[in-house]
Design a protein that fits this description.
401 residues; mainly beta; 4-stranded antiparallel sheet; 2 helices; 2% helix; globular
């Protein structure tokens, strides 16, 4: 029998988003600081999307954390391995080889390691790739590398920025170029018990933020600050910050078709959440942590900066998992029945859900994919818009059944 989750609608304030009611998956909104009240209940998730299954691409890749392909070239997949390597393979999983080895400079274990990879939009011409990793000092580092098309040269590393970490958790890890050609990175709040210093609500450092930079050098500076970043000119904020109020945005993605950003922000001890907003609405936006976990106010006098915050689109209690793994909106051609749906999962439960990307509603528990997933670390997208998911070191592709 298919398991069922409970959905709850809440009063409209501004745009649709989602909240936990009675331990289920539910809808919330963007609005003021007050928690919304449910106005109806008992809406169950729909059944699985028909005609979709998982096809095994590659197995036995312990520590696999990310999957990507270069722009306009879906023939080769690149898999990020936590211990410090990047493995390349043909689209069918054959011809596997190591194309970058950073194990001499990566601190790996727990939530640390080589965490993210992005290809420059003009990769075919300039051969530039970017990696996000925890270095041997425990700092998070975002670096640029060059490639000859076969291997990424570790000696070509050009460090763009580092983020000192107060602890060894909540490192974030996802990097992605947006439709504006700029590089976005999700940075965690640095961890610790709860959030003792409300780091994500103060913008004097990069902890608990979504940052945006142009990796092109600016004079002696390693990168350029986009002139329209929201905190440019603010002496109390880092100009790299695009949005803030995040706990651990382990996996986010930007929808190629709409430009909306989807952020899977790992919760503390009650709620996991996914929040979607247009890049325009996210600009300068506050995602609420740690004044709120999901839409639940946290104990203690934690103040929000500003009088509004961006509430989750989807959230669920720890009855259904313990660590959200954000995914992608499907924009490929092979699975028409998934087009326009956002896929996400949970590291602990291994459940894959999908939701209508326009509303965050019509949440489906995808129970007919075939393999039972465990330890879901990431989703990936190739240049054709086809999606992948990684569980316990195995890379799967979503395909037709």
């Amino acid at each position: 029998m298919r398991s069922r989750l409970t959905l709850t609608r809440v009063a409209a304030v501004l745009s649709i988003v989602a909240l936990v009611v009675a331990g289920g998956i539910a809808l919330a909104q963007r609005g003021d600081n007050s928690a919304p009240s449910p106005v109806s209940a008992g809406i169950s998730t729909q059944g699985a999307t028909p005609g979709v299954r998982l096809e095994t691409v590659a197995t036995e890749i312990p520590g696999a954390l990310d999957v990507a392909s270069p722009p306009n070239d879906a023939s080769t997949l690149y898999v990020v391995v936590q211990q410090g390597t990047i493995e390349a393979m043909d689209r069918d999983g054959s011809n596997r080889r190591t194309v970058l080895d950073l194990t001499d400079r990566v601190k790996s274990g727990g939530e640390q390691g080589l965490l993210g990879l992005a290809f420059h939009p003009d990769y075919a011409r300039n051969g530039l790739v970017y990696a996000y990793y925890t270095d041997r000092t425990g700092e998070v580092r975002l670096s640029e590398f060059t490639t000859d098309g076969e291997r990424i040269d570790p000696e070509s590393e050009r460090s763009l920025l580092t983020v000192p970490q107060p602890g060894d958790t909540h490192n974030g890890g996802r990097i992605e170029f947006g439709p504006d050609g700029l590089l976005y990175a999700g940075v965690g709040d640095g961890g610790g018990i709860g959030a003792p210093r409300s780091r994500a609500q103060f913008n004097e450092d990069l902890l608990g933020t979504l940052i945006r930079i142009d990796p092109t050098p600016d004079g002696e500076a390693a990168y350029t600050i986009p002139a329209d970043n929201p905190f440019v000119g603010d002496p109390q904020a880092r100009p790299e910050i695009y949005a803030y109020g995040l706990r651990n945005p382990w996996r986010f993605s930007i929808d190629d078709e709409t430009g909306a950003v989807w952020i899977g922000d790992v919760g503390h001890d009650l709620v996991e959440e996914v929040t979607s907003a247009s890049l325009a609405d996210a600009r300068g936006g506050n995602f609420g942590w740690d004044a709120f976990e999901g839409t639940r106010p946290r104990l203690g006098p934690v103040a929000l900066i500003g009088d509004a915050w961006i509430r989750p689109t989807i959230q669920y209690s720890h009855d259904f998992g313990c660590s959200v793994t954000g995914g992608f909106v499907y924009r490929g051609d092979e699975l028409a029945q998934l087009r326009g749906r956002y896929l996400f999962s949970d590291f602990c439960s291994g459940t894959v859900w999908s939701a209508d990307a326009q509303t965050g509603d019509d949440i489906r528990q995808e129970t007919e994919l075939g393999p039972k997933l465990a330890g879901v670390t990431t989703f990936g997208e190739d240049a054709d818009g086809e999606l992948y998911v990684v569980g316990a070191g195995t890379v799967y592709r979503f395909t037709s059944s």
